[in-house]
Amino acid sequence: MLVALDLSQMDVYLLKYASMAAKVFDIDTVYFVNVATSLELPEEIHQKYGDVFGPVDEAIEREMQEEIDEHFTLPANCEMKLMVSTGKITDEILKLAKVKVIDLVLLGRKAELSGSGLNSKKIAKSISSSVIFVTENPPLEWKKILVSIDYSDHSKMAFEIGAAIQKKCGAQLLSNHVYKVPTGYYKSGKTYEEFADIMLENTKKECDNFFRKMDLEDVDYDHTYALDDDPHPADKIYRTGSEMGVDLIMIGSKGRSGPASILIGSVAEKLVEEGNDIPIMIVKMGKENMSFLDALFRI
């Protein structure tokens, strides 16, 4: 797991959330990463103060370590590593996730606190790891989880991970499908409401087929439907999660490869921009993070 820190108040929330995630997901190694724009001090500062200032990266690591010691609880059999790098924050996170073969990334999703320079949309679209966008003052226990499904294999994986989390910590598992009335419905001679009923009946059949493909023994879940009258389903997904009072919204996304990912990826990208109150987990199916998924399935 990679946790991106920026030496702000957001780090406290991330570290506490990382403690929970590392325990629930049986994480083997946690990388705490800080990306600085520069690790160099001006020459005049060095000349004026001499040896007062040590290497800046070491100072950053010391500050990170202090925060980690205070707010992070390392699970048993889990290793911890600190890393300081330079460059554009988003690009460095994407690069480190690939180089270190990261399964899960935790990123801060700020509302009131100062920005971190992260491009959430780019990360959601480009990263091959699963990622959780953590809000300020997030819930530190998963009591209620919503999985948004579209009956794809990616949704299946997200739901199965939700089921694994339920078995591990007893969370209430909810799933929801957002359905729409096609724009040309009026050509059928039916009203919007009549065609909405037709689409609901159709999606219920799809839902039965979707869940029939999974082993749901001992899985307790509640599936609901939401009619979306907006051009994009992401806002409806977020509103549904907010109305249900969930602690986490999960959505499956294929990632960058394959034509189907254009639509699936756009929903995930848009979802992380919808609000700052609910943490969002985007589950990726990339080969790089299959070890993480396999570990979850063994829970």
Account of the protein in words:
With 299 residues, this protein is α/β, with parallel strands linked by helices. The protein has a single domain (2-297), classed as Rossmann fold (3-Layer(aba) Sandwich). The protein is built from 10 helices and 10 strands. The protein has a 10-stranded mixed sheet, sandwiched between helices. Helix 5 packs antiparallel against helix 9 (261-271) and helix 8 (234-244) packs across helix 9. It starts with a strand and ends with a helix. Mean pLDDT is 83; it is low at 255-264.
Q: What is the fold's blueprint, element by element?
A:
Layout: E1 2-5, H1 10-24, E2 29-36, H2 43-49, H3 56-71, E3 79-86, H4 89-99, E4 104-109, H5 120-126, E5 130-135, E6 144-148, H6 153-169, E7 172-179, H7 192-212, E8 221-227, H8 234-244, E9 248-253, H9 261-271, E10 280-284, H10 290-297
Parallel strand pairs: 1-2, 1-4, 2-3, 4-5, 6-7, 6-9, 7-8, 9-10
Antiparallel strand pairs: 5-10
Helix pairs in contact: 5-9, 8-9
